[in-house]
């Protein structure tokens, strides 16, 4: 019979989490730091238990937990970092609790309820290699999770770490856009992988930390059924060529508007660039107004448009809802209509991130979005393991919007922009998106109330799509594109923003709510609710019902889902 001090061995997955800058936080306000850690403990305990984990050691500001499955350990770490990130949204930067997490699958020694040995030590060293807000896993873990968990990664190669006699193969998982905040360990090179230098930290504090009772644990992955978008399986096609999208604008100074019009008073402004011609019937020019400033922070950075502060009515009124046959699944999503004030100017990209722009990020960082993308097969959404942002299942050019990317991929791209520019690029809130899409208008669409003019302004389900996909409900007009169009192929909205209501759906920063009851009135993102889902804005290329491409239309998407009709567009907070 074994005594409590007897040692035995087993294979286990070990997760080590440690707070970044604990000593600094404690030095600034020790009472608050200890209290915040104590509050956050309940959240972490629940997350670990939900993933069948067991905490076997705590102390100081770290925690050590074991899992039977590497997949569950990584899922736990993702939810852990999401909960911490959600908490930090409500805190000033000097009071944010950010964690590094390391995960290893290896042989451990068991003594009572404690675990010891190299299997634990390697996890601790991987935690030291992790980025703030990030996760670093060993090669043994990666071998078990690849193609099972939808996260991006960077292979940082073999790492020599303290007190471990052999190099450790390591992978950085990209989750929260912290690629620009590396404080030690990993240094990018021009090759499509990153090479790590020795860790900047010395000995790590032993384990413990707590967790926030006011924060929430993020819900599990939800694959959203966009039932009213289900179509027949798209055959392989050749997209009708389009002219080159608008040329790059030289950076212009950020000029806050002298007058900040209300939603009812706002005067539409023309685009600061000439849109590329598209195979559509010409439309009347937008009313003239003072052009907005544009800027581009680096050669591969997106062109940004500075938008004015102002007020508008978000959502649809009951009369608009009554005019359309909205499926029951979305009825009420855009209700109740409510006023929103955008107190400060902000910037939004003039077009969606393109495949070329995303490829520049991949080349610069070695980031690898996981393979697999959800596509339509018949009338069902099916995971296609071979589809990806480079091959979404239909032809695209470098100027088409990137799709088959999930929230982690988007945040990694935005984190790269932060690293390159030092500016806080982010996803727009839902309110910011609708404010920008409306561009000072109060009509159903930014061009008016007539849906039949859509082909002059947006790529949606039209006769071109209907010819390729006979089962697709279609508008009577023809826009010339059956799938995605190169960005800027259509007329912009009155503020010079392209493709705001069509081409693809875009992820926003908010957590999902099925209506606007209690929605923020200041234009900020909704940080509570179902954070496993996020609202999307804009209708994809095969959406052929007038209700689907309204300025107020909104849908939802799972944060970990990669879909062949979903992409993103950055926003930027201004000083």
Describe this entry's structure for a reader.
This protein is α+β, with helices and mostly antiparallel strands. The chain is built from ten helices and 23 strands. A hairpin with a 2-residue loop joins strand 2 and strand 3. The termini are far apart.
Q: Averaging pLDDT over every residue, what do you get?
A: 79
CATH superfamily of the largest domain: paralog of FGE (formylglycine-generating enzyme)
Helical segment count: 10
Low-confidence blocks of residues: 176-291
CATH topology tier name of the largest domain: paralog of FGE (formylglycine-generating enzyme)
**Distance linking N and C termini:** 68 Å
Count the E strands: 23
Q: Helix amount, in percent?
A: 10-25%
Radius of gyration: 25 Å
What structural keywords apply?
paralog of FGE (formylglycine-generating enzyme), alpha+beta, eight-stranded mixed beta sheet, 575 residues, five-stranded antiparallel beta sheet, 23 strands, single chain, Alpha-Beta Plaits, 2 domains
Could you outline the blueprint of secondary structure elements for this entry?
Layout: E1 8-19, H1 22-28, H2 30-50, E2 54-59, E3 62-67, H3 70-88, E4 99-111, E5 114-116, H4 118-129, E6 135-138, H5 139-145, E7 152-159, E8 168-174, E9 186-187, E10 195-196, E11 294-295, E12 304-307, E13 310-314, H6 318-323, E14 338-342, E15 346-349, H7 355-365, E16 373-377, E17 380-384, H8 407-421, E18 425-426, H9 430-438, H10 463-468, E19 505-507, E20 533-537, E21 555-558, E22 566-567, E23 571-573
Parallel strand pairs: 4-6, 19-22
Antiparallel strand pairs: 1-3, 1-4, 2-3, 4-5, 6-8, 7-8, 9-10, 11-12, 12-15, 13-14, 15-23, 16-17, 18-23, 19-20, 20-21
Helix pairs in contact: 1-2, 2-3
């Amino acid at each position: 019979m074994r005594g409590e001090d007897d040692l035995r061995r087993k294979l286990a997955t070990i997760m080590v989490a440690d707070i970044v800058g604990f000593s600094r936080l404690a030095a600034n306000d020790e009472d608050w730091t200890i209290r915040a850690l104590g509050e956050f403990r309940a959240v972490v305990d629940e997350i670990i238990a939900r993933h069948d984990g067991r905490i076997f050691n705590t102390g100081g500001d770290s925690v050590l937990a074991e899992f039977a499955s590497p997949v569950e350990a990584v899922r736990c770490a993702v939810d852990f970092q999401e909960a911490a990130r959600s908490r930090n949204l409500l805190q000033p930067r000097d009071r944010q609790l950010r964690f590094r997490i390391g995960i290893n699958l290896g042989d451990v020694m068991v003594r009572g309820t404690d675990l010891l040995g190299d299997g634990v030590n390697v996890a601790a060293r991987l935690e030291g290699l992790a980025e703030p807000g990030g996760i670093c896993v060993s090669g043994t873990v990666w071998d078990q999770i690849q193609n099972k968990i939808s996260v991006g990664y960077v292979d940082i190669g073999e790492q020599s770490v303290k007190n471990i006699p052999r190099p450790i193969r390591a992978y950085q998982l990209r989750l929260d856009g912290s690629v620009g905040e590396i404080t030690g360990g990993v240094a990018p090179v021009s090759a499509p992988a990153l090479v790590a230098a020795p860790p900047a930290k010395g000995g790590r504090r032993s384990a413990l930390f707590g967790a926030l009772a006011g924060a929430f644990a993020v819900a599990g992955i939800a694959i959203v059924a966009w039932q009213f978008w289900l179509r027949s399986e798209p055959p392989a096609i050749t997209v009708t060529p389009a002219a080159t999208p608008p040329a790059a604008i030289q950076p212009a100074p950020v000029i806050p508007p002298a007058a900040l019009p209300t939603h009812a008073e706002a005067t539409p402004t023309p685009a600061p660039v000439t849109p590329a011609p598209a195979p559509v019937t010409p439309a009347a020019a937008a009313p003239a107004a003072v052009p907005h400033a544009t800027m581009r922070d680096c050669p591969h950075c997106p062109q940004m448009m500075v938008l004015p502060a102002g007020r508008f009515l978000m959502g649809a009124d009951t009369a608009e809802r009554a005019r359309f046959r909205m499926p029951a699944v979305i009825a009420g999503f855009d209700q109740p209509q409510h006023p929103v004030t955008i107190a400060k100017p902000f910037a939004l990209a003039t077009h969606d991130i393109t495949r070329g722009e995303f490829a520049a990020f991949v080349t610069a960082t070695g980031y690898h979005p996981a393979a697999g993308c959800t596509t339509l097969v018949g009338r069902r959404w099916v995971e296609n393991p071979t589809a990806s942002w480079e091959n979404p299942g239909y032809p695209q050019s470098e100027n088409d919007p990137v799709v088959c990317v999930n929230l982690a991929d988007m945040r990694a791209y935005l984190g790269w922009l932060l690293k390159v520019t030092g500016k806080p690029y982010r996803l727009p809130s839902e309110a910011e998106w609708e404010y920008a899409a409306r561009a000072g208008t109060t009509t159903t669409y930014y061009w008016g109330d007539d849906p039949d003019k859509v082909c002059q302004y947006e790529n949606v389900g039209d006769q071109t799509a209907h010819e390729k996909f006979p089962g697709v409900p279609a508008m009577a007009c023809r826009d010339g594109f059956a799938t995605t169009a190169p960005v800027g192929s259509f007329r912009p909205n009155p503020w010079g923003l392209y493709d705001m209501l069509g081409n693809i759906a875009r992820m926003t920063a908010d957590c999902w709510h099925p209506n606007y009851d209690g929605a923020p009135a200041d234009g900020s993102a909704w940080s509570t609710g179902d954070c496993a889902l996020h609202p999307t804005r804009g209708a994809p290329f095969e959406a052929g019902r007038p209700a689907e491409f309204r300025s107020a239309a909104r849908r939802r998407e799972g944060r970990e889902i990669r879909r062949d009709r979903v992409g993103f567009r950055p926003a930027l907070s201004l000083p």
